[in-house]
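REQUEST FORM: STRUCTURE PREDICTION
Request ID: SP-0412
Submitted by: Lab K.M.
Chain count: 1
Length (residues): 193
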Amino acid sequence: MRDLILASTSSARRALMDGLGLPYRTQSPGVDEQVSPLHSAKEAVRELAERKARAVHARNPEAWVLGADQLVEVNGQTLTKPEDRGAARAQLGKLLGHTHDIHTGVCLIGPGGQHFEGLETARLTFHAVTPDELERYLDLNEWEGCCGSYRVEGAGQALLARLEGDRSNVQGLPMVTVVRLLRQAGFSFFERR
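STATUS: Completed
RESULT:
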């Protein structure tokens, strides 16, 4: 049985990985998530996914390590995790009634430096909501730790007017891409234990 590590402590990513039925464990990458401001959102998520995978792989060189990173992009501006409720309100103000993209970079690194990577983009359109409804959503604290200040796996799905792309990508880990990378690395599925 191959050792597979998800370089993340995200509960949303763990829930998606659990659905595959593959044995895996998690480990926090503990990396600096700052990237050059000259990077596009797509370049940044690719770099950060690889940085996370490499950090965990350095501690577990015989394992396969899956790293991922996600950013929201609206009108050419990249949104990261909000620092506080005010920042979350400002981010959602840019998204409500508009269309934005979510980019997720994924990197799988294995023994001997084997390396597979992918990038997935989903496009979302949000409903315009009243200021009172926005404040009620912010009261739920789903914005905490989330790029773009919402969770579509929670109450934030009520903001969603349209989704083009892989819903699991929006939740933090594009499973179609993940499965493709794992298959490229030689993992097999549906095995009896």
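NOTES: Residues 41-59 form the longest helix (19 residues).
Reviewed by: T.R.
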